[in-house]
Every structure is written in C-alpha cells, then in structure tokens.
Amino acid sequence: MGTVVKSFKDQFSADERLKESRNITAKYPDRVPVIIEKYSNADLPDMDKNKYLVPRDMTVGHFIHMLSNRLHLDSSKSLFVFVHNTLPQTGT
C-alpha cells in the first residue's frame, strides 16, 4: 500500500504559505513562486521537487513543457496544469 502524502496546503498553514511567498517575492521580484502537486490518481512519475520560481514572462505552455521534460514524459502523454481548479490558457 502506498504512502499517503499530505498536500502542501495540509502541511503548511495559510499564514506560513503567505509569509514564505512574501519572502520569496521580496527576494526575487522578477519570479513567481509556484507549488506543483501531482493529482493522487495521476499516472505520472514522482516529482523530485514541488516548489518552482518561474520567470514572470514565462507562458503557462512553456512551463508545462519544462515540467514534461523534467518528468521525462513521453510525447504521447499529456500534462495538464490547474490553477485553483481552472485550466489556464497555455499562452498566458
């Protein structure tokens, strides 16, 4: 039986997450802190990290491409990224 992994939100309070986000954006104003978590039922390899500092001018499509490469996904597999349960446009 697999190990149950707590989500980032379950591991850290809203205040802790906000404080860390503010510290990061103060230190790296040209970057956006992003937390990536795998859907529990997803057929994806485990990720080696879940925190990313993404350049503000990087498109969602480019970020998805970078994640796909990092996960060594076959080109026949699709990767979907949701932001607050919404699928953003890849060109934004």
Automatic annotation (TrEMBL):
Any single GO CC term annotated in Swiss-Prot or TrEMBL for this entry: membrane
Transmembrane segments: none
GO biological process, one term: protein transport
Keywords per UniProt: Autophagy, Cytoplasm, Cytoskeleton, Lipoprotein, Membrane, Microtubule, Protein transport, Transport, Ubl conjugation pathway
Subcellular location per the Swiss-Prot or TrEMBL entry: Cytoplasm, Cytoskeleton; Membrane
InterPro entries given in the database record: Atg8-like (IPR004241), Ubiquitin-like_domsf (IPR029071)
Function text: Ubiquitin-like modifier involved in autophagosomes formation. May mediate the delivery of the autophagosomes to the vacuole via the microtubule cytoskeleton.
Similarity field: Belongs to the ATG8 family.
UniProt-recorded name of the protein: Autophagy-related protein
Lineage, highest ranks first: Eukaryota, Viridiplantae, Streptophyta, Embryophyta, Tracheophyta
